[in-house]
Structures are given as structure tokens and as C-alpha cells.
Amino acid sequence: MTSHTLEVLEFFRIAEIIAGYCRLPEAHTLCLQKHPSIDAEKIAEAKKLGRDILSFLQKDEQLPIKNLPPIEPVLKQLPASGLCLSIEELYAAGLLALQIGELKAWAVQKEQPDNAACMLIEAMPPLPKTQQAVFSFIDKNGELLDIPALTAIKKRIQRIETDIEKTMRSYCTDESTKTMLQTPAPVLRNGRQVIAIRSNFKGRIKGIIHEYSQSGQSFYLEPESIVLRNNELMRAHADYEQELRRLLRKMSAEVAEEADALEQAHKLLLELDCAAAAAQWAHQNNGVFVCDSGTAQTFCLEAARHPLLGEAAVPIDLRLSEDERILIITGPNTGGKTVSLKTAALFVLMNQTGWPVLAGEATRLPLFRYVGCAIGDEQSLDQSLSTFSAYMQAVATLLAAADQDSLILLDELGSGTDPQEGGALAMAILDELLTRHARVFVTSHHGVLKNYGYRKKGCINASVSFDEQTFRPSYRIMMGIPGESRAVDIAEKNGLSPAVIRSARAYMADSSADAAALIKGLMEKHAQLAVFEQEKAETERVLKEKQRRCDLTALKLRQKELLLRAQGYKRLDDLFEQKRNELENLVREIQEGALTHEKTGKLKQFFADFEQLLAKERSQISSEEQDIAALQQDYRKQESAPAAQSGTAAVLAEGVEVFIPHLHRRGIIVRKEKKNWLVAVDTMKMTFPADKLEPLAAQTSVQLRTPQVVVEAELHKESRPEFELRLLGMRLDEAEKHLQNQLDLALMHNMQEFSIVHGKGNGVLQTMVQEKLAAAPYVAEFFFARPEHGGTGKTVVRLR
Length: 800
Fold this sequence. Notes:
five-stranded antiparallel β-sheet; alpha+beta
């Protein structure tokens, strides 16, 4: 990315805005120095860091980054031998150590080890020596603590200053000397206290003259009695400075031991502050960090807003597939074509810097090695270049650098010269870029480029929409449709005389009426297509929902069919096992003695009871079949309801396809015979009454699936499932039957949850219940109740 491209696309202005959110002055400088990268891994890491910080901000959790004084000058001095940092420099290092400690405590509290911000903070080295050394010498406000050696010298200084002040005050109050003074108070000269004496009293007080006034009327005298005390004061100050320097040198040496850790921690802290600034900007402006699209080269902008337009920005949507390499945007002047180009390219630069963009979550941007643009007037008086010549030089530079990993922006391509030659040149340039497989965004008013966008594979037209009522652009992009320049309409709106407008429309009618009509027709078709797609999407949604319900119903039918079959087999097995035992007992009794009338009666009674029991079973099965048939008919009515409502249902007539419910077969009516109908079913012809046939829609051609039965009826009309099934005191087989009956009833009545009280005891009932529930496919989960509700003596069951 060249600096020219970054400047034209106003990247540096965005950098200044984001840098304004930095807490640290050095982070502000670092943010301004950031540039787009082509390292995909580095970009992904920067965006993940910003995205994870944004997740904290969205929960109103700020990173505890504080404003710190600059520390880079300190870091540069640390490698030097005999280092002696100032109090301010030591204080800056101590504040950095405190900041790292606070961040680490904050990250540990969050307990999010996978969060990139927490990981970055964890990578910061701790600085215990620096913190201990600095804040054993300086308090948290940057003031010196009470160091004994320094405190003793300060007291000595105060005593000397007090003595000097008393002596000097005596000169100012003594009647013999007060009249000699030019001023009634002592003053400082060269760091020593002196008194101003009138010149005519020279020699009256012994001492050292430091200087004369400019008028010569007075001179500044250090009395002989004060000289020694001033000497002592200066010596005391020198001792203080010497001791302070010794302590500073000692503290600096301790800080220098962590020089590498300080530098690394400072570097990571600046990165964290820069990322936090970008996340804060995104949070305040509804921005997003673009998700990586992998190897896909889809270019998609959703509700993209140029950051510099603020609330005036109109969101734009733009989508190009991997094969669509050139986008040609046409439309009226001031319609937003150039802004759209700049927005798309600026977002690419921001994304590759690891910054968020002001767009929707669906935005996807490829990684580009090179971004180049030819936008605006490149005219140069210094180089004697016209606008067209300068533009062509810029295009030549772009062509030299363009490849499949390049994004090229060409604003008003082919303008500035003869329209015919400019159009031909523009198409040739696009041919070359298309050959290089570069991604190209072009704006133009040339009609030939609109046709070029339709003819060339890999090209797509787009336009900025225009309000037909107000003759104002709406700044929205319409993909797939070229736009009209509407120059005459705009000129009329801006006050051009009616005569000129009429003349221009007359010229237009002769040359380009057909093209304008074609574009207008295409725009109308585009609007109709949008409505159709919306209706299609709604229809697809309804069909998917219906298919989902049908699939769910079929699954339930299949489950209930298997369940009923298993129950029927078990019931028959129990019946035959019982009767087999009874028969064996009868045979044993007959074999053990002579055949008597009583034994014969028992045998007859056995067969009579067995026949009666079979009749009862047949009656019950017949009743269940009737219930199932009724449910099947209701289910078919539900499925055929839409067809009946739309008028597609057929009536009974020759050649009509029908469904025979009790045979689960399709057939075709051959003819009517009196009150019945002769129907061809497979290879047979059978007669059925009209109420046994269901006509199918004449135009339906789908295969009729053999319906599976959803048995919503209860196993026993008077039975209901229990919310708490108690098995205590039952035998194992009896408890198992009650549990199975409870599961069946719960499934029939759509009960989602119930509990089973089986007690603890020796664990027989508990084991049976657990095994039974584990084998049932319609049980979603089961678990022991909470201790206060029964613990391991009670199991809670949840069905699917």
C-alpha cells in the first residue's frame, strides 16, 4: 500500500480518530504509525484481540488501563552503566509496574483463559523488583517518602536557615543598623542571603559585597556573621543532593535488573491500549471486526457506512462472488459512486490493519497484497501534465502492480478525452486487469462500459439509485443494473434554463432514447424480481416448516408403530405362555389318573376360556384398528387441505386416481357399477363403495407414502399418566408392568416429565427402573431426585 493510496482514501484521518481513544500518549503515537498488513495470521490475531475486548465493552466492563507518563526515555537509559534516574523517571517505571499488576489481577478475576485480551495480559512479565524499589522510596503520588538519611539532613538545613533568618532579622530591627538598609528585608543573591545597604554607609558593616545596584545608590552585602552560616547551609544542601543521588543510583540499579521485562511489558501494554482504542471506537459507533472468510474471495459489504460521514452516511450493500472480478458502477452525478468506492477500499485497509469497520456482521473482505487507486484530479502544473495525462500515468502504475491479489479503484475511467476513444481505452484497460484476475471497482458515465459489463464474464454492473420524484440520488447501490447519468434532470433541478433543457432532451431523443428505455425497463424488472424473491423466500419458509412438521409426524408415527407392535408381541407372548402353562397342568392331571368327567370338563372349560379370550383380543385389536384408521383419515385430510383449498381436489370419475384407506393402496377408477366403483389396484380389479375411496388431486404426481400411524389415543380411555409413579411394595414383574404402562400413557398424553418412587431397599426396583429407562428410545434423560426430594430412592424422567 503506497502512502498516496492511504492519503487518498483518508486512512490517516481514521488512524487519528482511533488513536484519540488511546489512554497512553505512547500508544497514541503507535496507533498513528500502524499500517495495513498482508500477514493473514497477524491480522487475525489483531482482530481477535479487538473482538474479545469489544465483548467486555458490550457488557459494560472497561479494561483498567490508566494514563501513564512516557517511559520510553527511561527504557533507553536502562542499559547504561552507572545509571541514575530522576525521581520522575523512577516514578514512571513504578507506575508501569503497578499497571501491569492491576491488569493481571483483573484478568485473573475474569476467568476467561481463551480471551485474547486476558492471554495478552498473562504474557506481560510481572515487575515485582521495580515496584518494590520505587515505592519504598516514592509514594503513590510521586513524592519522596521519609528516608532517615535525607530527613536528618533536612532538619540540619532547617536549623541553619532558622539561625540565618534570626541574624538577618537583627540587622533589620537594630536601631543602629536599620537606618543603613536600603530595603527592610534580606534578599537572595547567588543562593546566599544578603542585605541591601546604602552606598554612603560603606565600610560600616563588615562582610562580603556581592554586587552593586545599577544606580550605584546601594550594594548587597553578606555580613561577616552570616558568611559561615551560609557556607554551612550550602554544604548541607550539597550533602542532601549527594545522598539523594546515591539513593537514586541504588534504586535505578534495582530497576535496571528488570530492563528486559520492563521493555516487554511496555510493548504489550501499548498493543493492548491500541486494540482497546479500536474496540472502544467500534463500541461507540456500532462497528464490527470482520470475520475471516478463509480462502474464499467473496467481497461483501453489509450496511457499510463511511466513518468520516457520521450520521449523514447512508449504509450501502455490495456483494461480489469470487468469479465477479470487475464492478462497474454507473449513475447520476453526486450519487455516491466515488464514496462507495472509497468506502469499500478504506474498509479493506482498516480490516488489514486489524481495525473494526462500520458495517453489519455479514461483511466479508478478502486479503489484498496491493491496493491502488486513481481517484480525483491528478493534474500537475509542475510536470506540465493535463488531467487526462496525469490520470493515465496513475493507471499505468496500477497496471504494473496489479495481480490476482490486488484491489484497483478507477474513478471516472475514460473521462477527460474524446468519449469514443476514452470508452475504447477504458475497455482495453479493463481487459488487461481482467486477464490479471485483479479485483477492480470502476465508476464511469460511458454507456459502452455498461454494455461491457453485460458482455464480459467476470464483470457485473451496478448503479446508485435515483429518486424519480425529487430527482435526487438516494446513495444506495443496486447490483446488476446499470444507472443513468440523469445529467439533464440534474441540470434542470439546478436552474439551467428551460430552453436549454428542451434542446438537450431533443438531442437525447435522437441518440439514446432506446438505451434509456432499456435501462428503465431493467430497473423495473429488478424491482419486480426483488418482490418475487421476497415472496419466494416466504414460500420456501412455509414449505420448510410444513416439511419439518411432516417429518416430525412421520417419525412419531414410526415410533408409535414400533411401540404398539412391541406391546402386541409382548401381550401375545404373555397370553400364550400363560395358556401353555395351564394346558400343561391339565395334561399332567389327565396323565396321572383315569379320565374322569371332571377332568374332561376342565379341558373343555380351558378351550372355551381360551376362545373367549381370543375373541376379546380380536375385539380390542379391531377397536385399535378403527382408532388408527380414524387418525389416518384425519392425517390425510390435514395433508390434502391445501390442495382442497386451492381447488385442485378431484371428484370420483373414470380415470381418476384414488386411495383405498383400509388397503393402504392406490388405484385408478375403471368405471361405475350401480352404486359402487370398479377400481384397478395393482394387477387386480376390485369393487368398492364410494365412501371407501378418496380421490387424489388430478395434477399430483408425487408418490404416496404408506402412512405411518400416530396413535394419539390413550391405551385405556379411563387411564391417565401419574406425575409421581409409586412402585413401593410391588413385585418386580408387577412394578415393571406399571412402569411400562406409565411410559405409554405419558407418551400418549405428551407428558414431558414425571417421577418414579422406587425406594432404596436392596436396589432391585431401582436397577429395573434404570435399565428400563435406559432402553427406552423416547426417554431423553433420567436422574435421581435432589436429596430433599427423595435422593436415590426417587428417579426423575424427562421424555423427548
